[in-house]
Every structure is written in C-alpha cells, then in structure tokens.
UniProtKB/TrEMBL annotation:
Organism per entry: Desulfonatronum thiosulfatophilum
Pfam families noted in UniProt: FAD_syn, Flavokinase
Annotated family: Belongs to the ribF family.
Major enzyme class: transferase
UniProt pathway: Cofactor biosynthesis; FMN biosynthesis; FMN from riboflavin (ATP route): step 1/1; Cofactor biosynthesis; FAD biosynthesis; FAD from FMN: step 1/1
A GO MF label: riboflavin kinase activity
Reactions it catalyzes: riboflavin + ATP = FMN + ADP + H(+); FMN + ATP + H(+) = FAD + diphosphate
Full protein name: Riboflavin biosynthesis protein
Length: 320
C-alpha cells in the first residue's frame, strides 16, 4: 500500500479510484467492512482502492488536547489498513482552514480532481465538511454533478450493539480486553520500547520484566493481564501489569511484562503487547512473599488461558 500525503502525490499516482473516507480510529470491524467493500468495488471496476483519512485527527485540531485517547496511533492505523489490501491511503492534513471548506469544495478538489473518484463507499452515519453537511444525500447529489456513484454501508452489530470506536474505547478502559476482540478483529495491543526500570522484578522478586515506554494513548484498566508479547515477528506468552506498583509506593503509571520462558536481552528494542484477558485488579500486598505467591498464580493462570485454542492472535482480516 502506498501512502499519499499531498494533492500533488495523489494527482501523480492515482487516475481513477474507488474511495472510502473516515478517521478509522482502531480500524475496527465496522471500518474493515467499509475498506473491504471499497477494495472489492475497485477490483470489479478496474479502479484503484483508496482510503482517505486525516492527520492529525480532526478533534485534536478543533478541540485541542481535551479529547478521548485514540485507539491507534497514525502509523498503527496505516499498518492495519495496509493488511486489508488497499492500494492507497491518502492522509489529508487536517487544519482549521480545511474544516471551513464546504463539502462540495472538498469533494471536487481532493476526491474528484485529486483522486479521479468514480465510486465512493461511506458508513451509515458518515458526514463531513463544514457543519457536517456532507452526508449521504448531498454526496449523491454531488455524484450526479461530478460523475461518481455513492454506496452507503450499514453498521456492524456485535452483541446487538453497533461497533464503534467509542464503544471499543470504553471497553478497553474497563479492562474488557477479551470481550473487545470481536469488535476489533484482533486483540487490543500497545507498542513501545523496552527501557531500564527499577530492576525489582528480576533481582528482588525473581520475575524479570520488560518495562515499556509507550507512545499509545489508550490503556486498559490497571491490573494484571494474560498477554502475548511480540518481538521480532515472534510471539511469546507473558503476564503484563499495568499500574502504579502500590506495594512499593510508586505514583507513576507503568507497563511491565514478564515474558515466559524467555531470556534474551531486549533493552532498547520494540515490543508489542497483545492483551488477551484480565487476570485481576491491582493490589497492594502486605509483604514480598505474598506478592511473589500471587505472581506465581498469575503465571499459571496465564499459561492456561494462552494455551486455549481461542487465545490465538487475531489480526485484521484480509478481504476475500
């Protein structure tokens, strides 16, 4: 998949296209349905498939820092879109000036002229442009004027509720990482570089941990989790703890993973943590012996959970 970041790049690389548009935070099952349908329509018509998204997220520009944490960082979003086989992703720089554009001006400049759009696929509730006037009805009118067709896709329902980024965010923050997997089509994951910690896990407790410095914004509820630790393309069973280490009186949130049956030195290396199931809440233990005993129980439980057939890694689905 090729990433386009300007109108000039779009004009140079894309002549005729089938387009879908959205913020795609999380690239969840609803987004995947849109992207797969776009790819399928493009293939049937001999067009390029293009996902149009915005960087930074419009809310960050319009509201500022007081926005909910995002499920995926920009590079993670692009990686997930790429796994679905799209030809291009057009990352439009979102500014306050862009927000003031009328829908017709945006469609004409960026989609019709920039991407040679012939077909468009949108979600059931999608609207864009100034005052969100660019809805399905208006897009159909613009399609007649500029020569493109519009298809609107219905919502994806799981457990009788619409799959949405806000629903996923609430579930992750509540620690419902196992329950959120069907909505994402994969386990929720965070990624970061292993940094030097206080070295209590290995020397004091006998359970060496990888301390991660994360760039991600969305974290599961504090507690212990059964996880997969991904390093250099391989996955290993692990137990991760998100919290403040109350037994030691810490006041800084940390993410630590004890990777089972693993002895490599991975300081300063990138590791991805896939959250499978929450084991327990964060606790303050009376002494080290009680803490060590509980960690041993966590490891045994994690091994059982990760050894089950349902606990395999699930990645974003390829279109068929």
């Amino acid at each position: 998949m090729q990433v386009l970041r300007s109108l000039q790049e779009a004009l140079k690389n894309v002549s005729k296209s089938c387009v879908t548009i959205g913020n795609f935070d999380g690239v969840h099952m609803g987004h995947q349905k849109l992207l797969c349908r776009t790819r399928q329509k493009a293939a049937l018509s001999g067009l390029s498939s293009v996902a149009v998204t915005f960087e930074p997220h419009p809310l960050r520009v319009l509201v500022g820092a007081h926005t909910p944490p995002f499920i995926t960082l920009p590079h993670q979003k692009l990686e997930a879109i790429a796994t679905l086989g799209m030809d291009f992703t057009f990352c439009v720089e979102f500014t306050k000036e862009l927000a003031k554009l009328e829908p017709e001006e945006f469609v004409c400049t960026y989609l019709v002229q920039g991407l040679g759009m012939r077909n468009m696929v949108i979600g059931y509730d999608y609207a864009f442009g100034r005052n969100r006037k660019g809805d399905y009805v208006m897009l159909c009118e613009l399609g007649e004027r500029y020569g493109f067709d519009v298809e609107q896709i219905g919502p994806v329902l799981i457990d009788d509720a619409v799959v949405s980024s806000s629903r996923i965010r609430d579930m992750v923050q509540s620690g419902l990482v196992w329950e959120v997997r069907p909505l994402l089509g994969r386990f929720y994951r965070v990624q970061g570089k292993v940094v030097t910690g206080r070295n209590r896990g290995g020397k004091l407790l006998g359970f060496p941990t990888a301390n991660l410095r994360l760039l991600d914004e969305l974290f599961p509820k504090t507690g212990a989790y059964a996880v997969w630790a991904e390093y250099l393309g391989r996955t290993y069973p692990a137990v991760a703890n998100i919290g403040y280490n109350p037994t030691f009186g810490n006041d800084v949130l940390s993410v630590e993973a004890h990777i089972l049956d693993f002895e490599e030195n991975i300081y300063d290396k990138e590791v991805c943590i896939h959250f499978v199931q929450r084991l327990r809440s964060e606790q303050k233990f009376e002494n080290l012996e009680a803490l060590i005993s509980r960690i041993q129980e966590d490891i045994l439980l994690a091994r059982r959970i990760l050894g089950s057939p349902e606990a395999h890694l699930v990645e974003a689905r390829h279109c068929v």
